[in-house]
Amino acid sequence: MKSYLQMVLSLSLIAVLSGLALGGLNELTFEQIQINILKFKKIPAVADIYEILTGELSSEERMAVEEGLLSEKRYVDLGLNEPSLFFVVRKDGAPFAVALEDYGQGFAGNLGVMVGFEIETGNLVGIGITTMSETPGVGTRVKEKAFVTQFMGMSKDAVLKVKKDGGEVDALSGATVSSRAVAQAMDNARAFYTEHREAILDAVNETPGGSS
Amino acid sequence: METDFFALIISAIFINNILLAKFLGNCPFLGVSKNMDTAVGMSAAVVFVLTLAGIITWVVDHYILATFKIEYIQTLAFILVIATLVQFVELFLRKSIPALYKSLGIFLPLITTNCAVLGTAIINIQEDFSLLETVVFSAASATGFGLALVLFAGIRERFEIARIPKPLEGTGIGLVTAGLLALSFFAFKGMI
Amino acid sequence: MFIPAFVMLGIGFTSAVVLAVAAKVFHVEIDPRIAEIEDALPGANCGGCGYAGCSACAEGMATGAAPVTACVAGGEETCLAVAKIMGGEAGFVEPEIAHQYCKGGDRAERKYHYEGAVDCRAMAELYGGDLRCEYGCLGMGTCVTVCNFGALEMGDEGFPVVNPGNCVGCGACEKVCPTDVIKLYSITDRLLHFNHDEECLSPCKQLCPAQIDIPGYVDLASQGKLEEAVSLIKERNPLPLICGRVCPAPCENGCRRAAIEDEPVHHNYLKRYIADWDMALGKRKLPSVLPDTGKKVAIIGGGPCGLSAAYYLRRLGHSPTIFDSKPELGGMLRYGIPEYRLPKKVLDFEIQEILDLGVDVRCNAYLGQDLTIAQLEEEFDAVLMAMGAWDNSALGCDGEDLEGVWKGTEFLQKRELDIKVDLTGKKVVVVGGGNTAMDACRSSLRMGAAEVVLLYRRTRNEMPANKVEIDAAEHEGIQYHLLAAPTRLVGDDQGVVQQIEFIRMELGEPDASGRRRPVPVEGSETLMDVDVVIAAIGQKPLLDWYTDDLKERGLQLTRWNTIVSDDETLQSDVPHIFTGGDLWSGPALLVDAIGTGRRATRSIHRFLNGQDLTLPKGTFKGAEKIALSNEIAVLGVERLPQVPQPELEVEDRITNFEEVDLVLTPELVQQEANRCMRCGTICYFKDDQLKEHVEGKDARTTVDDLLSKSPV
Amino acid sequence: MTTLTREFTKGLWDEIPLFRIVLGLCPALAVTTTMENGLGMGVAATFVLVCSNGLISLLRNVIPSEVRVACYIVIIAAFVVAVEMLMKAYFFSLSESLGIFIPLIVVNCIILGRAEAFARKNGVLASLADGLGMGLGFTLALTVLATLRELLGAGTLGLVFGERVLLAQPFGFFQQAPGAFVALGILLGLMNVLSKSGK
Fold it and tell me: In this structure, is residue C161 part of a structural domain?
């Protein structure tokens, strides 16, 4: 009988210890990871949108913009199980557009797109890619300027589908799957934005920070 | 929307076959496919483990991990469940089919680390399948795995009398043929 | 931070409980030693032990189903480790090495052009393979592919070459070969192997009574591998030095060169050269001897048969003791063959090499006087009777008991027994045509005889003596009175022989043995003065050892005083008594005695181990040629002059007992070796193939330096 | 000391993962599209392998054999998730490029393979040496495979030459997984030729 007890004891003990270790480690690293995700993922995408507006930025200017955007993040509680995050894009000091992130089904996993909407007109300002795992050299071309600029100033009720599917987005040759994913992400973002437009706009004027 | 089960099964077995399209579970693919009966034995074991694992991991994820928002230990919890199932299969085989147990050798415990099993479990969560879909998808993936394994075992038994350059004999030619087999499965890519 | 810990505890606990229950339900009693043994095994899963992989073999060993020595690939330390785990003691098992006889390869003729699956088994389905001789190597290399110890490589001449160092004896190649060309042989198998119908036998190998692999040692010699050549010869003939000098070489009659009207290859000169080189090397390189079996065998008679049986029995691990009536071993070799044909120095060297293996000797022990069979039976497990044939048959004419009339073997013994014989100025007449008669003539010449005459009742080419001997004696001035038979011996009043009367003969119809029966010509009696008459007209075994109790025990004799025993197994009617040599066959060649010595060894070995004695079915009987290898047309082979045997000049050899035949020079050896076509049963090397075969090996360059250090 | 060095060196040639012991294929085929990935993956796997080998051999007598697989895999998974978190927190860029493949380390057959075949039966020091040897062997194998695939498949060698295109028309085939199978097969053949002549 002793060996069965030993069996149960050892497995449970190891399970608990590892759970404990990971829990503790998670506590330790959670903040740092969030900051990293923000710094290396979300904000560069917003900076891409910023660049579409203001035109080419030198690396120092880009650093400054990214630094600035840190304080431009806003959290708004939309009844989802966690507060939604979006960014405010200022033009000549005044909030000009709002950028929020949504996902499309890419070639080998989710493709995250940060979409910018003009506050007044609701038209699209531009997009920036956050996370993707497309085939290198093929799918990754969606990041390039040629593809991204076509969305500048696109009207808010444009049919956000790839031309082949009857939409207005002309897909990258050879990367239809990735292009369709971007279109899908933008469509989701717009649907989310139009649905929660008022709450988002109130939050724009709040002080930055907000509840994490 | 009503998920089209037939399409799900076909895609799991042929289009994104866990082994020849997603390239998960290659170690047993090469290790066990030396002869037919071990390959069949392995496939049966994987079907059993994968289907059960699919169900339990779905339940664990939906009712425990999601509510407590501790997704990060998802890998840990899933792998523990899979390991228990594999250990269960190992004990069962040792008792009732010792011959198969012996011929599977090291590859039976290695089912636990079989990327296909954990991979499918994680895909079930990513695709946000319902329980029924999870079961169907897991079983179909496992069958796909079995199909690829048995197919490959058939080919490898032909190596016996083929004229193979000495250094490539055994695993070398196995890998090259696996590559070509995988290439042939690309043909299914565009079906759905 | 505690939530994940609780969740993991929950899952961990349930899993553990499930597994605990499963362990209980599916509990299987596993012998812990199995895992230990499996760790000790090499894990090659080669199947040599007959099990499907190492874990199955470990289980077999743990349950006692498989012996501790079952693992072939593991070698000694694995076996000892497993024995320690099982708590037993590991016994000795002879290592078995794969061996391949067929040297046909690309040169062998093919029945059809084969393009099927690259697998010998597949080709064997098609009319038994594409080879003309059905049991040759098909050369598809399946044995090479199945061997996973790297012991087999496809040689550049189209047949697999075994690397004995890597061979662990797992038997995978043997199972795969459809024509049984490659087989596992232990030392016992190799020593006790006899020619088989289903085996590659060159014509010369078929004719050699000792079944020596002649093309084998010739090829090794031409490549300069003289050490390997010696051990190859010694597997069949432990007395190469003696045989090289004395044997009339019946094998040369079968040489395939005869088919192109060319003189045969002098295998015997080469064998003698190889043996001399080994002797001159000086260092004693003893062959492998198996661990002692604790069985003792009595060998009565230290002649060639007794010596060869002692050599092989000792190598198989038994402990033989040789009893000999004379003061020293050698029998007819020492007391029959004179010094000029076989120097005693050479004889002693060869006998010593056998005794060094651990054979003990009791000389001056005469069966019937100093010891009896009954005494031997207490001390020994088996008895081999090989006393030879020393009794001379009588002339059968009156005056035989006159003084000065000696028997052949009696006369030849005198010199060796230091009995002074002075024939200076005397006239000697020798009656008989065999080797003993030749020895008597030439010895008496060397003892100062003024004139030596030989009487023989048939013609020259029916004389059983070696052709070389007959010519050499004639060169030394011995007169031949052929077709003449003695009728009367006339003595003076003191009873000393003065004259011999003989009668002219003619040849009539052939008698039972196929030789034409001589018929006397009436009235042609002639008288000749003579001082000494030596009768050498045939021998038969002495019978003074044949006591009554042996007769009751069932030991019977034939009309020629030889012992009645089973032709194949040489076992007499008394189970533990075996016979061999002249005592069984009657007077015969030295090489016949060696052959029967090895055959007797096989029977004794199997008798001691309680195994059945009969020879395997299809064993090659006697010396008839396999018809297949006769009607082969020899194409692409030119005639090459035979190498002459260098000899002492006549003048300086008849006055002393110096050895007549000198040793060949290395160049002559290479020249003669290149005449040998390395025949198989059917295939042989055509000239260009042979040149490429010999030149191809870089050993060619080493032959010169190796041979240059040889004795001249 | 010699047994330790032997345990260590055997992982580098005699029993080098991927070429000799054909385990750990899944990450090898998927991640070795660029040299940098191969190296990163190898290092991460080595770290996990060494730690898990050490801990498992420490507990080898405690854990009963019926639940040994479950316990080992939990330990390995714990290490992997820990590595994932640490990487995301402090080496974000590397964790980005390795992406999906860090969780897949836990199912990397090498780690449980070594635990099951070696750590379970030998002392801690030997297991650590074995883990390190195997890990470095694995990294070496991955890097060699990755170099071959990147050079032939994409025509560039990111880590070494940056963006410069070395091969005008690269064979896309090698960038995909079937190409990985074929490349590894050929490398295995090459290895046998080398070892045969090398011996």
Answer: yes
Q: Is the Cα dihedral C126, C130, C136, C141 positive or negative?
A: negative
**Chain D partners of B176 at a C-beta cutoff of 8 Å?**
181-182, 185-186
Best of B16, B17, B27, B188 to disrupt the D interface (most D CBs within 10 Å) is B27
Identify the domain containing residue B54 by its residue range. Answer: 26-181
- Check CB contact of D87 with chain B, cutoff 8 Å: no
**Residue C73, φ and ψ in degrees, nearest 5:** -75, -25
pLDDT at residue C413, rounded to an integer? 82
How many helices (DSSP H) and strands (DSSP E) are in chain C? Answer: 27, 20
Say how many C-beta atoms besides its own lie within 10 A of residue B126's C-beta. Answer: 9
Query: Does B72 contact A22 at a Cβ distance shorter than 8 Å?
Result: yes
In chain A, count of helices (H) and strands (E)? 6, 5
The answer to the question of residue B127 being in a domain is: yes
- Which of A1, A2, A4 should be substituted to probe chain C, the one whose Cβ sees the most C Cβ atoms within 10 Å? A4
Asked if D99's CB is within 8 angstroms of A29's CB, the reply is no
A30 within domain boundaries: no
Which chain B residue lies closest to C153 (C-alpha atoms)? B166
Residue to substitute from D20, D67, D81, interface C, most C β-carbons within 10 A: D67
Instruction: In whole angstroms, give the CA distance from residue C337 to residue C436.
Output: 8
> What is the reported pLDDT for C308?
93
By residue range, what is the domain housing residue C316?
296-388+552-608
pLDDT for the residue numbered C706: 44
Number of domains in chain D: 1
- Decide if pLDDT at C29 tops 60: yes
Q: How far is the alpha carbon of B16 from chain C, nearest alpha carbon, in Å?
A: 31
Beta pairing partners, C539:
C392
Residues C515 and C493 in one domain: yes
pLDDT of residue C701: 41
The predicted-structure confidence for C111-152, as pLDDT tens digits, reads as follows 888 888 888 888 999 888 888 887 888 888 888 888 877 888
| pLDDT of D132 over the 50 cut | yes
pLDDT interval class at C561 (50, 70, 90) = confident
A13 contact D CB<8A: no
Sequence letter at residue B146: G
Q: In chain A, positions 149-208, which contact chain D (CB-CB < 8 Å)?
A: none
Mutate to test the interface with A, among C8, C9, C11 (most CBs of A within 10 A): C8
Residue at A157 is within a domain:
yes
Q: Which tokens belong to C664?
A: 């060949």
CB distance D152 to D180 below 8 Å = no
Give the pLDDT score at D100.
60
Report yes or no on C380 lying in a domain: yes
Q: Which chains touch B (3 or more CB pairs under 8 A)?
A: A, C, D
Tens-place pLDDT, residues A53-107: 777 778 888 888 777 777 777 777 777 767 778 888 877 777 888 888 888 877 6
For residue C11, give the nearest of B81, B87, B105 by CB distance: B81
> Which of C540, C566, C597 is the C-terminal boundary of a domain?
C540
- Find where tokens 């927190």 sit: D89
Q: Which of A7, A15, A29 sits opposite D74 (nearest CB)?
A: A15
pTM given for the model: 0.68
Q: Evaluate if residue B134 carries a pLDDT over 80.
A: yes
Residues of B in contact with D112 (CB under 8 A): 109-110, 112-113
Tell me the C-alpha distance between A44 and C410, whole Å: 121
**Helices assigned H by DSSP within C548-641:** 548-552, 582-585, 590-608
Residue A96: how many CA atoms within 13 Å on its side-chain side?
14
Minimum distance, in Å, between the CA of residue A93 and any CA atom of chain C: 42
Closest Cα of chain C to A132: distance in Å?
29
Q: Which residue has the tokens 């690939």?
A: C73
Q: Is C352 exposed, middle or buried (0-12, 13-18, 19+ CB in 10 A)?
A: exposed
